[in-house]
């Protein structure tokens, strides 16, 4: 009997018990797109749709052991990294990944809360830029995170162009700068590819409070499309289209008392099968 394998995506991220963001959102997106999801927990935020109440750390040794257990057994076709909130955690993740064969990596640099508060310290940012960026294939900052990384205000599309160029030169292979905070009738995102070319994506803006976890979902979706065999530019475009439609299909649903989740399963795909090599 012929045997197959599933395209797998590993998410390295924080927890969200309300199910809209973090590892929960990643697993939903990866599964909805027909990939097999594995996960490593980096932190235990206590949160719901209304906000984060507290954050409990996961011991660094436990993070390393989780990573090793997955990479020794279910080696991923792509990796998504989300919440890495200390320099020591960055060291743990990067040092462990480097002991294994190279794999495509999408990094969502979670640095700023919805309230505008910074979630990480300067030494963590230095560790991320110095150690994680060199192994990152697609970096997905929003405008607030881009402002921190580029050390400049980012309020307009012109600002996004300048900031994106600066960030790509920090060492990551490519950058998708998300423009969800633009005050415009259409949402604009800019993708700076590894050659330096800039690709613009535009989507209709519509009113909804249900955008909790959209950044987590996007990075997981891009990693999933890469695992499915798409080239990076195509994966970036497909990931954004998936998130836009997931928000659209969940915009009128009430979940919780705050910012609700996306509808990750508006068009769920069956698990894909790849031939065993």
Automatic annotation (TrEMBL):
Keywords: ATP-binding, Kinase, Nucleotide-binding, Transferase
CDD domains (UniProt xref): HMPP_kinase (cd01169)
Enzyme type, top EC level: transferase
Domain Pyridoxamine kinase/Phosphomethylpyrimidine kinase: 16-263
Keyword Lipid biosynthesis recorded: no
Tree of life domain: Bacteria
UniProt-listed InterPro entries: HMP/HMP-P_kinase_dom, PM/HMP-P_kinase-1, Ribokinase-like
GO molecular function: ATP binding; hydroxymethylpyrimidine kinase activity; phosphomethylpyrimidine kinase activity
A cellular component annotation (GO) from this entry: cytosol
Pfam family membership, one: Phos_pyr_kin
Pathway membership: Cofactor biosynthesis; thiamine diphosphate biosynthesis
Coiled-coil regions listed in the entry: none
GO biological process, alphabetically ordered: thiamine biosynthetic process
Name used for this protein in its record: hydroxymethylpyrimidine kinase
Species per Swiss-Prot/TrEMBL record: Parapedobacter composti
Enzyme Commission number(s) of this protein: 2.7.1.49
């Amino acid at each position: 009997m012929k045997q197959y394998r599933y395209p797998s995506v590993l998410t390295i991220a924080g927890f969200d018990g309300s199910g809209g963001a973090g590892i929960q959102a990643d697993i939903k997106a990866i599964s909805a797109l027909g990939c097999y999801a594995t996960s490593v927990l980096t932190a235990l935020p206590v949160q719901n749709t209304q906000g984060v109440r507290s954050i409990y750390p996961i011991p660094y040794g436990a993070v390393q052991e989780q990573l090793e257990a997955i990479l020794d057994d279910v080696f991923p076709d792509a990796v998504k990294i989300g919440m890495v909130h200390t320099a020591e955690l960055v060291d743990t993740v990067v040092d462990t990944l480097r002991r294994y064969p190279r794999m495509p990596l999408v990094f969502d640099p979670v640095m700023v809360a919805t309230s505008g508060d910074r979630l990480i310290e300067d030494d963590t940012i230095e560790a991320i830029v110095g150690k994680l960026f060199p192994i990152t294939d697609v970096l997905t900052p929003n405008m607030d995170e881009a402002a921190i990384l580029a050390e400049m205000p980012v309020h307009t599309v012109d600002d996004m162009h300048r900031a994106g160029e600066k960030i790509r030169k920090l060492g990551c292979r490519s950058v998708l700068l998300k423009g969800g905070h633009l005050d415009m009738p259409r949402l604009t995102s800019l993708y700076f590819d590894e050659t330096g070319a800039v690709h613009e994506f535009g989507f209709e803006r519509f009113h909804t409070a249900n955008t909790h976890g959209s950044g987590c979902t996007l990075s997981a979706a891009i990693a999933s499309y890469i695992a499915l065999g798409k080239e990076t530019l195509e994966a970036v475009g497909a990931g954004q289209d998936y998130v836009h439609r997931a928000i659209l299909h969940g915009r009128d649903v009430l979940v919780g008392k705050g910012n609700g989740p996306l509808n990750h399963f508006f068009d769920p795909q069956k698990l894909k099968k790849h031939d065993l090599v």
